[in-house]
Specification:
The complex is a heterodimer. Chain A has a 6-stranded parallel β-sheet, sandwiched between helices. A 3-stranded antiparallel β-sheet of chain A has the order 7-8-9, covered by helices on one side. Chain A has a two-stranded antiparallel sheet with strand order 10-11. Chain A is of the alpha/beta class. Helix content of chain B is 37%, strand content 13%. The longest helix of chain B has 24 residues. The two termini of chain B are 43 Å apart. The chains are: A alpha/beta, B alpha/beta.
């Protein structure tokens, strides 16, 4: 099978007006081959100015945001003052050329600007209009504000993270924003797929609440029925793994490993006992422990045996030997481990893209999926402010250079 | 209007070999959006998640546990023993009538049943097949397995958060089981759009571990471009102060507060009844507040400590300040103004006492929540699918049960 270099979404166009809560959604569309156009105010939007920043930028030059480089990779960018009447008219014309609208404005804000769903779907009935709001478009909290931290807190996800004796910890790298973006992009693509099969090719409105999207991540650890059936309230998970024991252990080299013996029936606990014996680890586990019901009441000796085993070996040795023995060991990696990981390298997970203005190659997370007939991936670096304004206005709207000059003079572009 | 429109995936059928959580949570999204998802399982190789999870009472049944029910709404269940040649034949017949095939087995499990992509595309040439094992289908770790707790560790989601000097506990167990599904649905929908436009199906190899790495944001560039592994930030953020969880009245009660703009800081000072604090030079600008963040956190915590977390949330939000209870499960189901009525849905079977509560999909379609049906009982749709979809006679169906093919 040889894959076409085009992505599976080649021919699909998205207008990306999302702020930080939704900027990952557009990145995924770009990865999947859609033409994603960031629509920013003249001078660029706030996403471009978020820390952290790239090192090694010449003194006096403006800082370069890693946030922008990561989340806007693979997109095109135009500038347009959509609060200006002519800018608004141009945006409406771009909507007519697009399949997906993506924003994360506060409820009612786009309506006030004349870009509500009713208006845009009347203009373009095939449009899929996807929005992310903190708490949805209705209900008593619709006007409450939330960034990622508030989303993680009010979804129930934050309460579960950390050691019980510490305060709850917000997930790393803004997972409430990521869950909201994931829910929005997947539902928008469901709507596009549905539209392809609809003889009338009608679009849809897709609304995602960041709170609800992030709540999905609590479905197992804090399943609703734990409370409704038994009045249970799960606490912070700490080192706890499945089945009540811990699953995070420190290895001989000071690195950490996740050590899980598959749950339930099956030969797996025997494989673990074999390993202890082969390795000469002293322990008090007899064959009685092969019975899961016995183990359930005697967790501590198992944990002691794992601790002893882990303290004898480096993390990499444990990882590969454990997996060879069909036990579910996984390293607790940091980004340096990941950047050098042979498995990720062999799958070409990381995308190396040239950044001409910076004169360097950037290595970014790539696509988590491979397609056999099409190609997913990040095709180019995040765009400069307005980098594609001329190209987009020329090719999509037929606006010539003289007209663009005038629009620029008047502050529309 | 929207009521009259079929769901977007109506008419799409999925032959679903997923098991455990991440897989079924993926096909649940497809089912909720209207696809006919036929969950193929067997007592000879049961979906283990039927036996792992909270039960309404003990001993539980394989049809009542909460996690199984949560990730399998709106599906049909068919029992086929794939250790029998006839079971494999019947599975292929279901594939012939399907648009999508899904599985998350590690290694070559599907190939060994004769149900690999090359075999199945002979049955259905425009098939879309997704396989989403932890490590994908190529590379040196191809046979390595893990639950979500291990995927998170591999994917870097334990070292990128937390407080200095504490063990790398990271995000709560199994996070990837609930994030990877949306990557998978997006990939499947992209392939479906491609098929609708070109007539061409394809194979999708999704590595759950890679989907976790894709959620690390700027941390990868911090290393590949800046050459450093960022220190876990605790509850702080580069461009906010204050930003954290502050203790409230009661046991283990916390409120999250986030302030970025100086105007929000002045609003917070006023709402705390300390307007003069806005003039304190230590806290005047974001840069000032970041420099004096320990002192800043002490001031805020001093105000929150004797107050109710929900009251703080509503008071601060009324002043335009971002604040929210660090909700526990009781908050989510009882005290939250949105979730109990807008997010959770109660589903009860006529012959069961227990009321099962499930999550709605977070996406609303044309302003409405997606309709939900209880997850299927083991084999609930055996007869309906085998005699209906596949057109077997009743006698053939009975014989398949006797032969433990339908098992």
């Amino acid at each position: 099978m040889s894959a076409s270099s085009a992505g599976p979404l080649a021919g699909v166009r998205a207008l990306d007006l999302a702020g930080e809560a939704g900027v990952f959604a557009g990145r995924m569309l770009a990865e999947l081959g859609a033409d994603v156009i960031r629509v920013e105010p003249p001078g660029g939007d706030a996403v471009r100015r978020r820390p952290p920043f790239l090192d090694g930028v010449a003194a006096g030059d403006p800082p370069v945001s890693l946030y922008h480089l990561h989340f806007n990779a693979g997109k095109r960018a135009i500038t347009l003052d959509i609060r200006h009447a002519e800018g608004a008219a141009l945006l409406a014309r771009l909507v007519a050329e697009s399949d997906i609208w993506l924003d994360s404005a506060a409820p009612g804000e786009m309506d006030a600007l004349g870009f509500g769903y009713e208006t845009l779907s009347a203009l373009h009935p095939g449009l899929v209009y996807a929005t992310i709001t903190p708490f949805g478009n209705d209900g008593p909290m619709r006007d409450y504000r939330a960034n990622d931290l508030i989303g993680a807190a009010m979804s129930g996800l934050m309460y579960l993270n950390g050691m019980i004796e510490d305060p709850p910890i917000v997930p790393g790298a803004e997972q409430a924003y990521h869950m909201a973006s994931l829910a929005a992009v997947s539902a928008a693509l469901v709507a596009i797929a549905g539209r392809e099969r609809d003889p009338e090719r009608r679009g849809r409105r897709v609304d995602v609440s960041m709170q609800e999207a992030t709540t999905m991540a609590t479905l197992q650890t804090a399943n609703a029925n734990i409370y409704t059936w038994h009045r249970g309230i799960p606490e912070r998970q700490g080192l706890t793994g499945l089945g009540g024991g811990r699953h995070l252990f420190e290895c001989r080299d000071g690195k950490w490993i996740s050590f899980t013996i598959p749950v339930g029936e099956g030969p797996f606990f025997g494989f673990f006992l074999d390993w202890l014996r082969d390795d000469g680890v002293s322990h008090e586990l007899s064959d009685a422990w092969l019975d899961p019901s016995h183990r359930a009441g005697h967790v501590a000796p198992v944990m002691d045996a794992i601790t002893a085993l882990c303290s004898k070996h480096d993390r990499e040795t444990l990882f590969h030997e454990g997996q060879r023995r069909r036990l579910l060991l996984m390293p607790v990696n940091d980004v340096a481990d990941l950047a050098h990981d042979p498995h990720l390298r062999s799958r070409d997970y990381f995308a190396a893209v040239e950044h001409p203005a910076l004169g360097r190659t950037l290595e970014l997370p790539g696509a988590a999926y491979h397609f056999s007939a099409t190609t997913a991936g990040i095709r180019h670096a995040a765009p400069a402010v307005g980098e594609h304004t001329d190209e987009v206005l020329e090719t999509l709207l037929g606006i010539d250079g003289n007209e663009r000059d005038r629009l620029r003079r008047e502050g529309v572009l | 209007m929207s009521d009259a429109r079929p769901l977007p995936l109506a008419g799409i059928r999925v032959a679903d070999f997923f098991w455990l959580i991440a897989g079924p949570a993926t096909s649940r999204v497809l089912a909720d959006f209207g696809a006919d998802v036929i969950k193929i399982e067997s007592r000879s190789r049961m979906d283990n998640i039927r036996t792992i999870g909270p039960q309404p009472s003990q001993p539980g049944s394989m049809d009542t546990n909460a996690v199984f029910n949560d990730v399998n709404t709106n599906k049909r269940s068919v029992n086929l023993n794939l250790r029998t040649p006839r079971g494999v034949e019947l599975a292929k017949e279901i594939v012939r009538h399907s648009d999508i095939v899904t599985n998350n087995f590690t290694g070559d499990r599907m190939d060994r049943w004769g149900l690999g992509y090359e075999a199945l595309r002979e049955v259905r040439p425009d098939l879309i097949m997704l396989t989403m094992p932890v490590m994908g289908t190529t590379g040196p770790y191809i046979r390595y397995g893990a639950y979500g707790n291990g995927v998170i560790g591999f994917g870097g989601m334990r070292t990128n958060m937390g407080f200095p000097g504490r063990p790398p506990v990271g995000i709560a167990p199994l996070y990837s089981d609930f994030s990877a599904p949306y990557f998978a649905v997006s990939a499947l929908m992209a392939a479906l759009v491609h098929r609708e436009r070109s007539g061409e199906g394809q194979f999708i190899d999704l590595a759950q571990a890679e989907s976790a790495v894709s959620l690390l944001g700027t941390d990868v560039l911090e290393y590949t471009a800046n050459g450093r592994v960022p220190a876990p930030p605790g509850n702080r953020a580069h461009d906010y102060a204050p930003h954290g969880a502050y203790p409230c009245w009661g046991t283990d009660r916390w409120v999250a507060i986030a302030v970025r703009e100086d105007g929000d800081w002045r609003a917070l000072c006023a709402a705390m009844g300390m307007p003069a604090l806005a003039d304190d030079a230590r806290f005047a600008t974001l840069a000032d507040r970041k420099r004096h963040e320990d002192a800043l956190d002490d001031v805020v915590a001093g105000w929150t400590r004797e107050r109710d977390a929900w009251q703080i949330t509503h008071v601060l939000q009324a002043s335009g300040v971002m604040a929210g209870v660090v909700e526990d499960l009781e908050d989510m189901l009882v005290r939250d103004p949105h979730l109990p009525s807008l997010h959770f849905e109660r589903l009860q079977r006529d012959d069961e006492d227990a009321v099962f509560t499930t999550h709605r999909q977070p996406a609303r379609l044309d302003g409405a929540s997606l309709p939900l049906q209880r997850a299927p009982r083991m084999g609930e749709h055996n007869e309906e699918v085998l005699t209906g979809l596949l057109g077997l006679s009743h006698d053939e169906y009975v014989q398949l049960m006797v032969d433990e093919v339908v098992y």
